[in-house]
Amino acid sequence: MTFNIIKKAQCGKVSNPDKPTLTYNIGHDADNQSFHFRITDNSSGGFFSHEWIALSSIVLTVENSATFNANIFTNLFESKSANNSGFLAAALKAEKLLLPYKDTKRLHKFGNVDAFNKSMQKLLNVSLPDEVAEREAVKESKRLELEKKLKLVKKTNATPSAK
Fold it and tell me: What confidence tens digit (pLDDT) does each residue in 50-94 have?
């Protein structure tokens, strides 16, 4: 699947929503007209996955739950970082797809998907750079360069010196 990144935004974690420490993307898959979320950065530490999570999967996960906490999203990720579900919940809260249940920070009810979809329509012509892919390309380039250097060192060490 290829996603067109239509929005890049920041939000706070579920436990501290007023301090923006997470950056997330909303992507659009034109082939099946679907929206997807992923976390791209965390400025306060903690591992997480860059996996795209389909809004349709999120809806299916919560559709039979009146209230829930972020752990409900754990099985949506292949990567099993403990932060994934909470960070996704924070992004969903920022987009008003998760609403607080009573006065709690960690218990949610699901918001209005139709309103979200409607608000995203005006962004469908936006195309933001894929910063995650760009960072991965730089890492891969550095890895290949180091691999070349290592092969050269091994070759040099394997060649007997002339006396």
Answer: 999 999 999 999 999 999 999 999 999 999 899 999 999 999 999
Q: Where are the domains of the chain?
A: 4-128, 129-163
Measured CA to CA, the distance from residue 17 to residue 38 in angstroms comes to: 17
- Could you give the CA distance from residue 23 to residue 160 in angstroms, rounded to a whole number? 53
pTM summary value: 0.86
Question: Which DSSP string corresponds to 59-101?
Answer: HHHHTT-SSB-GGGGGGG-SS--TTHHHHHHHHHHHTTSEEES
Question: Residue 28: phi, psi to the nearest 5?
Answer: -125, 130
Interval 99-157: pLDDT, tens: 999 888 889 999 999 999 999 999 999 999 999 989 888 989 898 889 888 888 888 88
Q: By C-alpha distance, which of 131, 139, 123 is closest to 50?
A: 131
